[in-house]
Amino acid sequence: MRFQAIDLFTLLPELVVLITACVVLIVDLYLPQERKDVNQLISFAGLGIAIAAVGVVGLAWGPMPTYAFGDAFVRDPMSDLLKGAVLVVTLLAFAYSARYMRERDMWVGEFHVLVLFALLGILIMISANGFLVMYLGLELLALCLYALVAFNRDSSTGAEAAMKYFVLGALGSGMLLYGISMLYGATGALGFAPVAEAVAIQGMENRFLVFGLVFVIIGIAFKFGAVPFHMWIPDVYQGAPGPVALFLSSAPKVAAFAMAVRILVDGLPGLASEWSEILVILSVLSLAIGNVVAIAQSNIKRMLGYSTISHVGFIFLGLLAGTPDGYAAAMFYAVVYALMAAGAFGVLVMISHQGFEAENLDDLKGLGERDPWLAAMMTLVMFSMAGVPPLVGFMAKLLVLQAVIDIGLVWLAIVAVVFSIVGAFYYLRVVKMIYFDKPELDAAVDGSRDARIAVSVNGLSMLVLGMFPATLLALCEAAF
Amino acid sequence: MLPQFPWLTLVIWLPIIGGLAVIANGDKNAEQTKRIALGVAVAAFLASLPLWLLFEAGTADMQFVERAQWIPAINVEYYLGVDGISMPLILLTTFVTIFVIVAGWEVISYRPSYYMGAFLIMEGIMVGVFSALDAILFYFFWEAMLIPMFLIIGVWGGPNRVYATIKFFLYTFFGSVFMLVALIYMYFQAESFSIPDFHGLQLGMTAQVLIFLAFLIAFAVKVPMFPVHTWLPDAHVEAPTGGSVILAAIMLKIGGYGFLRFSLPITPDASASLDWLIIALSLIAVVYIGFVALVQDDMKKLIAYSSIAHMGFVTLGFFVVFSIVRHTGSAEGAAMGISGGMVQMISHGFISGALFLCVGVLYDRMHSRQIADYGGVINTMPWFGAFVVFFAMANAGLPGTSGFVGEFMVILASFRADFWYALLAATTLILAAAFTLWMVKRVVFGPVGNDQVAALKDLNRRETLNLGALAAATLAIGIWPKPLVDVMEPSIQHLVQHVQVSKLPESAAVRVQAAPPSAGQPAGLAQVTPQAD
Q: Which residues form the NADH:quinone oxidoreductase/Mrp antiporter transmembrane domain (chain A) (predicted)?
C-alpha cells in the first residue's frame, strides 16, 4: 500500500472537520468564558467549508466510486449525500444549542470538540470500505457520545444515562467485533469487497458466516436502537442534555444506516436472503413496540425515543427489500428522519430555559399562543413524523412501502401502515397540546437569531422536501 | 391539443396561497383580513367558473388536462383533469366556501385570520382531490385535507372538541392507509400511478376483492357508511359552523367521488360480486340511521345523522348498477342510479350546508344546540323560520327542491334492480320527513319557548345573503336539473359501460362466459357486454 497525495483530496471533508476540531481545541484555551461564541463561529465556518468540500470532491470524482488508502476508504454518491446530510444536521444542532448550553454553564469548547470528533467518526463510518475502518469510526463516534451524554457533570440522570449508554454500547460494539472476527475467520479478509467475493464462493456452506452475520446484525441493531436492542434509547434521550439528545437522535442514525448498507449490501450481499429475514423480524418488532409504547410516555424525550425506534423499523423495511429502490428509499428515510429528529428536539431545546428543562408533554401546552411560528414549525415536524402529506415524512413512508410491496411482501406493508396509524396518535397529541390547550408556562422562548433561522429552515424543509422530493430522491437513487 | 390556460392549477393554488397570505396578514387588522379572505374565496369561485363554461358536455374524456413530471423516479406526475363527475363537485366546493367565510365573519373572534386561512387552504386541497388524475397526487391531497380540518375542529370547536377531532383524524387516517397500499400495489401492475391507466388494468379476482376492500375502508369512513360512521356526529357537533358545513357539504362527497373514480372502474368484478355488501350497508344507513336521527335532542347531531342517511342513498345509487344489469339484462337504467347519486351529492351539499348554517345562526345567538331550548322561533325570527322550513322540506325531499330529484332517480333505479331495495330506500322519504319536520315543529313553531327566544333578532343581511343563495341553488336544481344532469351524462354513461367489461385476465373471463347464464348469478357480468348501450 503506497501513500498517494491524491488520497488526501478524497478525504477533504474529513480533514476539514478534523482541522476544525483541533482549531477549536486550541483556540478554546485562550478564550475567556464570555467569548466562547468564537468556538461556535469557528465550528460554523468549518462545517460550511466541509459542506463545500463534499460538493467539490463529489463533483471532481463524479458518480463512480473512488477508493483511497489502499481500498480502506471509499467515496461514492451515497457517501457524498450522507455526509452532506450529517454536516447540515450538525450545523443545525450547533445553532439550536447556543442559548441552552450558555444558560447551564456548559458553553465550553469541549462541547464543540466532542461533537466535531463524533461527526468525524460518522464521516469515517460513512466512507468505510472495510470492517476495520468501520469499527474505528464507530468507536470514535461512540466514545464522544458517551462523554456528551454526561456533559452536564452535576446531573445524576445524565451520569446514569451515560453509564447505561456506555455499558450497552460497549456490549453492542463487542458483539459487532465478535461477528467481525467470525467473518474474518471464515473469509480471511476485512475489506468489504474481498469479503463479498469470498462469501460468493463459499455461499451458505460455511456456517461460520451465518454465525458471524448474526452477531454483526446485532451490533448494527444496537447502534440503530432496533427492538430488541432498543432499551438504551429512551433512557439516554431522557438523561442527556437537550442539544446532545438532538445530535444523538439525528446524525448517528445516518451513520448507522451507512454502516448497515456498507456491511450488509457491500460486504455480505451473498447472505442477503439470510439478513433480510432477520431484518423483517427486527423491523416488525421495532414498529410495534416503538409505536405502542410511545403512547404511554408522558416525557416527550422518551416519546421521541420510542418514535425513533419505530422509524428505525421503517428504515429496515427499505433495507430488507434488497433492491436498489429499497436502499434508496431507506436512505431517503434516514436523511429525512435525521432532519425531523433535529427539528423536534430543536424546538424542545428552544423552549427550555434557565433552570427548566422542557421534557414533559405538558410543557408544550399552548405553544401556539406563546410563539406561533415555533408552534407551526413543531406542527410541521410532528405531521411529518406521522407521515401526513404534504410533508416529507409521507414521501419517505411511501417510498419504503413501495419497495416492500415491490418484492411481494404486501402483508409487511400492511403491518407497517397499521402501526403508523397507532403512531399518528401520539404525534397528534403533541399538536393537540400546542394548539388546543391553554399555556401553563409563560417563559420566554429562545429568540436568538441562529436558533430561529435553524428552526425555520428545519421546519420549512419538511414542507419543501415533501412537495418537491424529486431532487433528493434522484440523489438517493443515484447512490445505488 | 393546444396548450391551454391552467385553470385547475389556478383553482387549486389560488386559495392555498391566498389562505397563507391571510394567515400572514394576521389579526391586527381583522376587518381587512376578512375582506382579503372573502376576496380570495370569490376569486377562486370565479376562477372555477370557466371549468363549467368552457366544459365540453358531449364527451367523457378528461378535460382541462395538465400533465407534468413531479417525482420522475417513481413515475408520479402532476396530472390534473376533470370530467362530468368531478367538475360539478369542484364548483360546489368553491361555491360553498364563500358562505363558510361569510358565516364566520362576526362569529369567530379568536384568531379569525387563522380560521379563514385554514378554510381557504382546505378549499384548494379539496379541489385538488377532485381534479387529481394521478393516484399519489390524489392521496396527497386526500390526506393533506386532514391537517386543516383537524386544527379547525380542535381550535374553534365545542367543549368536547379534542376527542372529536382526534377521532376524526384517526378514523380517516385508518381508512386511507389501506388505500395507499392498494394504490402502490396497482402501480406495480400498471407501471404508472395515473388513474386512467389503473382503469385499464387487468386484475385477478382475489386482487380485485382485496383492492376493493381497501378502497371500501377508505371511502366508507369518509362517506361515512354504517358501521364506521360514528366519527361524524362527534365531529359535526364539536366543529364550528363553518367546519360542519365543509364536512357535510364537501368532505363527505369525496368518499362518494372515490367510489366512482376508483372502486367501480378499477375493480368492476369485485364490485359486482360484493355489491350486496354496499347495498346492505346503504340500506341500513337509510333506515337505521333515519331512526337514530329521530331521537336526537341536539340539532347538529340530528342533521349529522340525516347526512349519513342521505349519503346512504348516494352509495345505494352507485352500486345498484350491477343488480339492474343482472335483473333486466340491460344497462339502460343503470346510469340513472349513478346520476341520481351524483345529483343527491350536489343537492345534499347545498341543503346540509344550509341546515348547518341555520343551526349556526341560532347557536350564535343562544349558544345552545339543544332542541328543547328553543320553540316558537318563528315569532321572533320570521325570515329565519321561512328559510328553515324551506331547507327542512328540501331535506325531506319535497318535489321542486333538489332533494327530490336525486332521491327520486335513485329510487327509480332501485326499482329496476329489486323491489325491496326500492321499498326500503323509499322509507327515507317518510323518515326524513319525520325527523326534520319534527325538529322544525319543536324549534320553529309553537308558542315562544322562553325569554331568550323572545329576545332573538332576525337574520342580518349577511346571513340572509348566505341562506338566500343556497336556497336559490337548491330551487334551481330542483326545478331544472337538466343542465347538471347533461354535464354528467356522458361521463356516467362511459363509466357504466366501463364497469360492465370484466377486468379479469383472459382465462378467467372465458370461464365466466362458459358458465350457464342465470339471473342472479353474481359473476355473470361478462356476458352482458354486447348489449351495453
A: 128-420
* Residue A317 backbone phi and psi in degrees, to 5: -60, -45
Give the sign of the dihedral formed by CA A80, CA A84, CA A85, CA A87.
Answer: positive
Q: Which three cell numbers stand for residue A90?
A: 450538525
State the cell numbers at A448: 436568538
Helix axes A300-320, A410-436, angle to 10 degrees: 160
Whole-angstrom Cα distance, residue A164 to residue A180?
A: 24
**Cβ contact (<8 Å) for A402 and B184?**
yes
Supply φ then ψ for residue B71, to 5 degrees. -125, 90
**pTM of the entire structure?**
0.91
- Residues, chain B, total? 533
Cβ <8 Å between A432 and B184: no
Distance of CA B527 to the CA centre of its chain: 33
Q: Kindly report the number of other CB atoms within 10 A of residue A248's CB atom.
A: 24
For residue A28, the distance in angstroms to the closest alpha carbon of chain B comes to 43
**C-alpha to C-alpha distance for B355 and B299, rounded to whole angstroms:** 9
Give pLDDT tens digits for B304-333: 999 998 898 899 888 888 888 888 777 777
The DSSP call for residue A364 is G
The three cell numbers of residue A342 are 433535529
Question: Residue B335's CB: how many other CB atoms inside 10 A?
Answer: 23
Give dist(CA A428, CA A41) in Å, integer: 37
Beta bridge partners of B418: none
Find the closest chain B residue to A399 by CA distance: B74
> Are A405 and B136 in contact (CB < 8 Å)?
no
Going through A323-376 in order, the beta strands assigned E by DSSP cover none
Report whether A315 contacts A224 (CB < 8 A). yes
**For residue range A376-405, what is the model confidence (pLDDT) as tens digits?**
999 999 999 999 988 999 999 999 999 999
| Contact between A157 and A165 (Cβ < 8 Å) | no
